[in-house]
Amino acid sequence: SQQGEEDPQALSIQEGENATMNCSYKTSINNLQWYRQNSGRGLVHLILIRSNEREKHSGRLRVTLDTSKKSSSLLITASRAADTASYFCATDTANTGNQFYFGTGTSLTVIP
Amino acid sequence: NAGVTQTPKFQVLKTGQSMTLQCAQDMNHEYMSWYRQDPGMGLRLIHYSVGAGITDQGEVPNGYNVSRSTTEDFPLRLLSAAPSQTSVYFCASSYSGTGRIISSGNTIYFGEGSWLTVV
Fold it and tell me: With contact defined as beta carbons under 8 Å apart, do B75 and B65 qualify?
């Protein structure tokens, strides 16, 4: 399987702190995306980073990509209780064409 | 736009029963897919479609059938339900842009999920 792996599996922080979660994958990718899932809901797209990019920002989100290490990180700055959710990375590769592979997710809890 | 709509939200089946999970999108997306989500396993792709009349298998297709007669609809059929198919099912769609091959980097839009229990 080309499924990514998020690390850590669970993370608990205080409101206002920064949260960092990592994603590792197995083969070369075209793009990597991060998604958020609130409890009992579907996944929502957060940010995309292409294989030729190293860093991307969107509001309080910062994503980095290291293709040499086959890894990506998602940083959420100044976390809020509303950021409590599970976060997933998704990759698509030249070899898999139309298949997107999701990681196992990081469960983030932000304590007010 | 309603986005991606899945029904039913919850379903309990007996082993051996069949059922269909419905999925519809109103964004004119060519690409649609079904995932199942199990604890500790993330999301696993069951089947996908790059356009009407075209379907293909994902990682875990056994026990499931799909069809794509229209751009809008992509139903998932469980032929003979088994307890191992107890899971949360998500339908998703995306704009492919180039027809049969999905353009990399397109946002995937998800439905709200269908919770299925097979007893």
Answer: no
Is A25 within 8 Å of chain B by CB?
no
**CA distances (Å), origin B25, targets A8, A73, B2, B7:** 34, 31, 7, 12
The three-point CA angle A83-A51-B49 to 5° equals 80
Q: Which of A40-54, B51-65, B103-117 has the lowest mean pLDDT?
A: B103-117
pLDDT, greater one: B14 or A92: B14
Q: Is the pLDDT of residue B1 over 50?
A: yes
Residues of A in contact with B33 (CB under 8 A): 100
B108/A97 Cβ within 8 A: no
**Best residue in B29, B55, B104 for a mutation probing chain A (most A CBs within 10 Å):** B104
Distance CA B8, CA B109 (A): 18
Would you say A24 and A73 are in contact if contact means Cβ atoms under 8 Å apart?
Answer: no
Mean pLDDT (10-residue bins), chain A, 112 residues: 77 97 89 92 92 95 96 97 95 69 91 96
Rounded to whole angstroms, how far apart are CA atoms A110 and A85?
Answer: 9
Given pLDDT bands bounded at 50, 70 and 90, which one contains residue B39? confident
How far is B55 from B36, CA to CA, in rounded Å? 17
Is B75 an interface residue toward A (CB < 8 Å)? Answer: no
Residue B101 above 70 pLDDT?
A: no
Element (H, E) at A102: strand A100-102
